[in-house]
């Protein structure tokens, strides 16, 4: 049983493969954290608690036996009775000005499976795949309760946590902070590192790891989106960014808006880690009888470095987060016109692009920005989702029919949350965007953000999109979001509720996306926000793949995709081959390198295929063939990072089938080195006693242990940006086996 409650010592043990998490109810009702780490049998862990007096740590009646909340490892700490560390929750009682909360255990429930989270994206599990524990904590005055929910998955070292706050009193309360999780680690973790994924537009998710130091280390977004700058993920790791060694504790928020993640190392060397909606510019008024649900945080444990942490996250998200018929089926090979044409296209040009792609195995043609209203630049027409017949006579259906004739499905770009001031929608409804009366509306990319917290705004956009999606055979939608939020005010909310607007926007957006995917289950939705500005698990709940970055340069992508893979499955990482010199960085790389870097993601092309040389065209055929032959493995296999582009002059990764009978390996050497030594690439995840034939080689079979300990010989470092690709096939016949070592 994954959740075990021992009534004698009032201890909860949540156990799954390779991981346990334990808590205890103290005699006075406080809920303390006992343990999170490698699997432990349920047992008495009281000896691990420090229950003594410390100076300047207040305790009721100054009684050491009561113990100060300042020194207890609390499961959901609140402010006001002696814990001076970062609180998980803050409540203001406007009727008397109180900000104090003293939460005590008032009951718990254990159920099989995992209930849905009202209105929010979250992991899911069937009854036999998980168990959920809900612990209710109630303030000593009785008018506020918090339900702490823990779901433990039976086959993954993962836990999903969230909190639900209930107003049981007679007055409105104001929630000022309600994080999704808080974990107090004992001092043994004080030497850990705070690892996070941070960057900017076109260079998303670099890996940073720095040693914890006294005080708070944090990452956050105040942009109204999870952001390019910081991903809503961090990990506490024993060995910095080691792939294979040391404990690693991952925290990821299933949310796409403002967030805060932090680790606080206190004066007694314990570490508090927290993650949730950013309390900055947030408050929520809760009426008597109402409840507020926080987003979910996923907590993943690894006893063997970042590699195994990532594989658990990948499994969790592939099997328990991404939904819909399209998430499990092979992802189509697509060509997108954006980098080839920008806004400058008409039907003839698009058809010419498509014709040059026909017969190469490309399955989907995606029409990007510029097909609607007067959209010939980024200055106009967002919100007017009506085809521009001057560019596309006969409309989208005619184009889709022509594409079908060339053997390709049709995909379409939308930016549903946005409006251009120069648009019919804005002229009719200038108050439909986020704004603060009397203040200027700050533009970004010449556009404003529609107030998706308002049902009538959502309805109007939905109806426009629905009209197209019901009449045109669209099988893929690229859902963009090209600016962050400013002047976050909603014309629908009273003054005292304006700080709810950013979260209400997210709730409205999630409702809209849910409606969309339910109405069009056959459509594959791909998320995008100026590339990877909203690459988070909240989005993956609705859209199983996301455009990873506007930077499509293969060498930049080594870092971007490598960093993204720390949390997100390869199947979600959209990766395209684009033209050279690259549009974002001007770099020239070979077609082969661009192909190898892109083909282990959700593969596509973003260039004019007609302009390719014969050699590049032949290379394109080869890459498409590899992708087509192996995309099942690419979607489902276990992912291993082999060489880090952050620390070395190369990058390498591999994907191994679950049965360890097949693997794909990609290696990129970044800069040439004269007279370079013979180098080897040690593989991972193979069956040590298994035999593997390198499919493109001469048929010799090598043992898995040799491939992992000696490694694959790498070609000399001649030339910059040179890539290699290997397909390893389990050798099953005796003849195959004998031909190896
Ligand atoms: C964003 C996307 C691009 C492209 C443009 C179109 O920047 O990331 O891929 O769709 O918008 O305006």
**C-alpha termini separation:** 46 Å
Based on Cα principal axes, name the global outline: globular
How many β-strand runs? 38
Percent range for β-strand residues: 25-35%
Estimated radius of gyration:
27 Å
Account of the 3D structure:
The protein has 741 residues and is an alpha+beta fold. The protein contains 14 helices and 38 strands. The strands form seven sheets. Strands 6, 7, 8, 9, 11, 12, 14, 15, 19 and 20 form a ten-stranded antiparallel β-sheet that branches. β7 and β8 form a beta hairpin.
List the helices and strands and how they pair.
Layout: E1 3-6, E2 11-16, E3 19-25, E4 31-37, E5 89-92, E6 103-112, E7 130-139, E8 144-153, E9 158-167, E10 173-185, E11 193-200, E12 203-211, E13 215-220, E14 230-237, E15 248-254, E16 259-265, E17 271-277, E18 284-286, E19 291-293, E20 296-302, H1 305-320, H2 325-328, E21 334-336, H3 338-341, H4 347-357, E22 364-367, H5 395-405, E23 409-414, E24 418-419, H6 424-428, E25 448-449, H7 455-471, E26 474-479, H8 501-519, E27 524-527, H9 537-540, E28 545-547, H10 554-564, E29 573-578, H11 591-599, E30 602-606, H12 614-636, E31 638-643, E32 650-656, E33 662-669, E34 680-681, E35 691-694, E36 701-703, H13 704-709, E37 712-713, E38 722-730, H14 734-738
Parallel strand pairs: 21-22, 21-30, 22-23, 23-26, 26-27, 27-28, 28-29, 29-30
Antiparallel strand pairs: 1-2, 2-3, 3-4, 5-10, 6-7, 7-8, 8-9, 9-19, 9-20, 10-17, 10-18, 11-12, 11-14, 13-16, 14-15, 15-20, 16-17, 24-25, 31-32, 32-33, 33-38, 34-37, 35-36, 35-38
The chain binds alpha-D-galactopyranose (GLA).
């Amino acid at each position: 049983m994954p959740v075990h409650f021992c009534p004698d010592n009032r201890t909860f043990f949540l156990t799954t493969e390779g991981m346990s998490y334990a808590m205890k109810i103290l005699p006075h009702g406080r809920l303390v954290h006992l343990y999170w780490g490698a699997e432990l049998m349920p047992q008495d862990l009281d000896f691990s608690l420090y229950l003594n007096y410390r100076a300047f740590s207040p305790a009721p009646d100054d009684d050491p036996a009561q113990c100060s909340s300042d020194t207890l490892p609390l499961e959901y700490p609140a402010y006001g009775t002696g814990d001076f560390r970062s609180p998980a929750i803050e409540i203001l009682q406007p009727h008397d000005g109180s900000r104090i909360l003293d939460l005590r255990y008032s009951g718990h429930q254990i159920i099989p499976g995992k209930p849905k989270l009202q209105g929010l994206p979250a992991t899911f599990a069937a009854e036999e795949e998980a168990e959920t524990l809900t612990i209710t904590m109630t303030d000593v005055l009785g008018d506020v309760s918090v339900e702490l929910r823990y779901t433990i998955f039976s086959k993954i070292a993962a836990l999903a946590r969230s909190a639900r706050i209930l107003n049981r009193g007679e007055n409105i309360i104001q929630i000022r902070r309600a994080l999704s999780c808080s974990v107090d680690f004992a001092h043994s973790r004080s030497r850990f590192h705070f690892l996070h994924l941070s960057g900017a537009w076109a260079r998303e998710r670099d890996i940073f790891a720095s040693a914890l130091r006294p005080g708070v280390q944090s990452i956050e977004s105040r942009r109204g989106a999870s952001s390019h700058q910081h991903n809503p993920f961090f990990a506490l790791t024993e060995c910095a960014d080691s792939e294979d060694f040391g404990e690693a504790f991952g925290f990821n928020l299933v949310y796409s808006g403002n967030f805060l993640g932090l680790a606080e190392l206190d004066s007694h060397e314990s570490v508090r880690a927290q993650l949730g909606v950013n309390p900055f510019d947030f408050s929520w008024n809760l009426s008597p009888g109402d409840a507020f649900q926080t987003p979910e945080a996923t907590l993943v444990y690894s006893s063997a470095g970042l590699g195994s942490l990532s594989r658990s996250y990948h499994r969790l998200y592939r099997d328990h987060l991404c939904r819909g018929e399209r998430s499990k089926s092979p992802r189509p090979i697509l060509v997108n016109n954006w980098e080839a044409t920008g806004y400058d296209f008409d039907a003839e040009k698009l058809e010419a692009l498509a014709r040059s792609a026909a017969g190469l195995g490309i399955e989907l043609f995606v029409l990007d920005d510029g097909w609607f209203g007067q959209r010939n630049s980024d200055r106009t027409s967002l919100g007017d989702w009506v085809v521009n017949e001057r560019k596309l006579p006969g409309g989208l259906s005619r184009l889709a029919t022509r594409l079908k004739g060339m053997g390709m499905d049709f995909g379409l770009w939308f930016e549903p949350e946005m409006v251009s001031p120069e648009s019919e929608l804005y002229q009719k409804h200038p108050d439909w965007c986020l704004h603060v009366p009397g203040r200027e509306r700050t533009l970004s990319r010449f556009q404003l953000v529609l107030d998706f917290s308002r049902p009538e705004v959502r309805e109007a956009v939905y109806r426009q999109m629905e009209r197209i999606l019901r009449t045109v055979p669209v099988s893929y939608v690229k859902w963009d979001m090209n600016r962050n939020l400013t002047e976050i005010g909603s014309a629908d909310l009273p003054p005292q509720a304006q700080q709810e607007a950013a979260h209400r926007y997210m709730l409205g957006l999630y409702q809209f996306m849910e409606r969309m995917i339910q109405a069009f289950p056959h459509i594959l939705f791909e998320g995008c926000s100026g590339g990877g500005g909203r690459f988070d698990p909240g989005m993956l709940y609705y859209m199983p793949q996301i455009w990873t970055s506007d930077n499509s340069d293969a060498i930049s992508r080594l870092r971007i995709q490598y960093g993204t893979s720390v949390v997100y499955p390869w199947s979600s990482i959209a990766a395209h081959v684009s033209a050279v010199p690259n549009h974002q960085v001007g770099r020239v790389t070979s077609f082969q390198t661009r192909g190898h870097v892109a083909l282990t993601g959700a593969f596509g092309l973003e260039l004019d295929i007609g302009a390719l040389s014969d050699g590049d065209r032949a290379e394109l055929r080869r890459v498409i063939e590899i992708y087509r032959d192996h995309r099942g493995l690419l979607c489902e296999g276990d992912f291993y990072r082999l060489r880090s582009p952050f620390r070395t002059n190369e990058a390498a990764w591999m994907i191994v089938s679950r049965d360890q009978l097949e693997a794909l390996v990609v290696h990129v050497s970044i800069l040439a080195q004269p007279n370079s030594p013979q180098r080897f690439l040690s593989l991972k995840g193979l069956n040590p006693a298994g035999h593997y034939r390198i499919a493109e080689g001469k048929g010799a079979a090598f043992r898995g242990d040799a491939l992992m300990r000696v490694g694959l010989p790498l070609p000399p470092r001649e030339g910059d940006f040179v890539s290699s690709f290997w397909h390893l096939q389990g050798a099953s016949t005796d003849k195959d086996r004998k031909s190896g070592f």
